[in-house]
């Protein structure tokens, strides 16, 4: 599937413009439309209890109004930091603003918009103690790129694949094919952690399959050296100079919801490289 409709989360994080730059680069390379989504966090209050007195109520309303004005200024700055470079890059783009109140209110909107997108680009923001990407990748039915809050030289030229032969990893590779086909180098990272029925050399099978797409991928069998699987993957990304990691969003069911597995969670926490996840 081609990447023609990209969704970008816009927020007031100071590191967000670096994420916007990567999203704009992806839109240019894939000739895609980029839609920015900003969920505003307004302060809503009915005032103090009636017994507080007219003077205190008025002070309270003024404080709320001042806080909302600050939020509105931050909103305009955040949107401008997306629309101005997008316009300068000459890509097709638009943006939407939705109203939210409180932590986590962006998640339902992101999931809703994600369902008609080909790819979602997010930051490392958290809601209720977990990365927002968790909800979007499991609820939106679409691959997600999580961008760490650091400067990036580019994305999609030196791609690594975290591969264990699982269904989730296979889904991520298929979703990433439009990026893999344009990459200068692709490295398949295999950390020996086999499950029942999995090939002892799963990387070779994937490399052979990718060659049919014109992708010449190298297989790298990663030695853990006492590390966790997640830490071994993150360490190897730095060694090979990867600018994108493709991996399955492994998880398990808990009380009728999916939660990220330990490897996925660890990589998201530690990686300085953008991570494309699918489930």
Mind explaining what this structure looks like?
- The protein has 279 residues and is of the alpha/beta class.
- The chain folds into 2 domains: 5-43 and 72-146, HUPs (Rossmann fold, 3-Layer(aba) Sandwich); 158-278, HUPs (Rossmann fold), CATH 3.40.50.
- It is 41% helix and 25% strand.
- The protein contains 8 helices and 14 strands.
- Strands 3-2-1-4-7-14-11-8-9-10 form a 10-stranded mixed sheet, with helices on both faces.
- A hairpin with a 2-residue loop joins strand 5 and strand 6.
- Helix 1 runs parallel beside helix 2 (54-89), helix 3 runs parallel beside helix 4 and helix 7 (229-240) packs parallel to helix 8.
- The chain is elongated, with a radius of gyration of 21 Å.
- The model is unreliable at 252-260 (pLDDT under 50).
Rg (C-alpha, Å): 21 Å
Largest sheet: 10 strands, mixed
What is the count of helical runs?
Answer: 8
CATH superfamily of the largest domain: HUPs
Helix vs. strand class: alpha/beta
Please tell me what the overall shape is: elongated
Q: Compute the separation of the termini in Å.
A: 16 Å
- Spans of at least 5 consecutive residues whose pLDDT stays below 50 are 252-260
Proportion of beta-strand residues = 25-35%
Count of discrete domains: 2
Helix content: 40-55%
The CATH class name of the largest domain reads Alpha Beta
Q: What is the CATH third-level topology name of the largest domain? A: Rossmann fold
User: What multimeric state do the chains show?
Assistant: single chain
Taken in chain order, the helices and strands follow as EHEHEHEEEHEEHEHEHEEEHE
What is the total tally of β strands? 14
CATH level-two architecture of the largest domain: 3-Layer(aba) Sandwich
């Amino acid at each position: 599937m081609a990447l023609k409709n990209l969704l970008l989360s816009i927020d007031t994080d100071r590191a967000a413009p670096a994420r916007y730059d990567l999203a704009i680069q992806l839109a240019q390379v894939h000739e895609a439309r980029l839609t920015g989504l900003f969920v505003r966090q307004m302060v809503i209050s009915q005032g103090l209890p009636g017994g507080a007195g007219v003077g205190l109520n008025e002070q309270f309303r003024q404080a709320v109004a001042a806080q909302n004005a600050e939020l509105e200024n931050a909103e305009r700055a955040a949107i401008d930091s997306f629309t101005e470079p997008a316009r300068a890059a000459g890509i097709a783009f638009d943006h939407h603003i939705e109203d939210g109140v409180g932590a986590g209110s962006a998640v339902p909107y992101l999931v809703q918009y994600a369902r008609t997108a080909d790819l979602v680009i997010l930051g490392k923001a958290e809601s209720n103690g977990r990365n927002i990407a968790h909800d979007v990748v499991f609820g939106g039915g679409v691959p997600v790129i999580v961008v760490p809050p650091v400067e990036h030289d580019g994305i999609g030229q030196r791609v690594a694949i975290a591969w264990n032969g699982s269904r989730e990893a296979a889904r991520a590779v298929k979703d990433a094919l439009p990026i893999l086909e344009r990459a200068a180098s692709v490295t398949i990272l295999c950390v020996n952690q086999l499950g029942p029925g999995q090939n002892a050399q799963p990387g070779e099978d994937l490399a052979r399959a990718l060659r049919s797409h014109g992708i010449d991928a190298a297989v790298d069998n990663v030695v853990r050296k006492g590390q966790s699987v997640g830490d071994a993957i993150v360490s190897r990304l730095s060694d090979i100079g990867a600018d994108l990691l493709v991996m399955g969003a492994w998880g398990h069911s808990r009380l009728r919801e999916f939660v990220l597995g330990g490897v996925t969670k660890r990589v998201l926490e530690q990686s300085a490289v953008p991570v494309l996840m699918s489930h």
